[in-house]
Amino acid sequence: MVVGGTVALECVDWSWVGDSVGILDRVHGAGDELSVGERVAFYRRRRGLSQAVLAGLMGKSEDWVSKVERGDRQVNRIEVLVELARQLRVTLNDLMGEPVLFEDDEDNDDVPAIRDALMSPERLSRTLFGGAMQPEYVDPEPVARVAEEAWHQYQNGSVGHVVCVLPGLLKSAQQLERTSSGHPSYYRRAHAVSARVHHLAATTLSKVGESDLSWIAAERAMQAADRSEDPLVLASVSRAGTHALLAVGRFDDALSLGETAARWLTPQVREAEPEALSLYGMLFLRTAVAAARRQDRQTTRELLGQADTAAR
């Protein structure tokens, strides 16, 4: 369902929206009307974000956020309000103080399940937990097909569907890594598929505002990509890393990672590999976003020019 330009996750229990409104009423006084700026400040603090971090996520200055929260600056553009709501993880109606237009009574929020899959203690040490596991052969191809279908759903805007399938996909990817100690070709393929799954997790988690989990997934994707020994896989998941870094306002690091990955791809690009050229252009687009977020116009134009050259 789309509400006010934002995608409502199909699996998420939105009952907390009403709770949040109630909390605001009690804090401010039941008879008072909160301004948009006051709501921005409340939800920002609830998410544990500083004004500087929210400003970075919005591509604005810290002074802009401060003025919005104080009421010295009005936000009149709907696309800016939609982006504020997305970064604060509330609905547009909540941010505007309007009645909630939809309800979902089903308890289907799978983000906690994604968190459990990513933060399982077994992932911390194969030495400590390896003896308790009974690895079984897992065919990477069915996992790869499900992952690609989930990517297709993500690109079509069905983020809720992806959130629902990610816990199982992550567990399958982890099983692939545990059982990949056999033939070298299987080892590399298993880690390539795991990298793809964790890349999807990082991108999706960033989309729904779970920036810390997104970084964990991106790190796992990069580690798996390293073990795949495939430069295209590594370059591809580097986009997950830049995405996660952008989500937490680390624009310089995002720019550095994207440019490093592009340089890494240069030999494949020179050999005119179509997949390498496609990834090369995507990396320049991603780094252009990072440069724009840090308000570096010249670098942004240069990176967009390189992406345009790759596209041509």
UniProtKB/TrEMBL annotation:
Stored CDD domains: HTH_XRE
GO molecular-function terms, A-Z: DNA binding
InterPro entries (alphabetical): Cro/C1-type_HTH, Lambda_DNA-bd_dom_sf
One Pfam family hit: HTH_31
Signal peptide: none
Domain HTH cro/C1-type, residue spans: 40-95
Protein name: Transcriptional regulator, contains XRE-family HTH domain
Organism: Actinopolyspora mzabensis
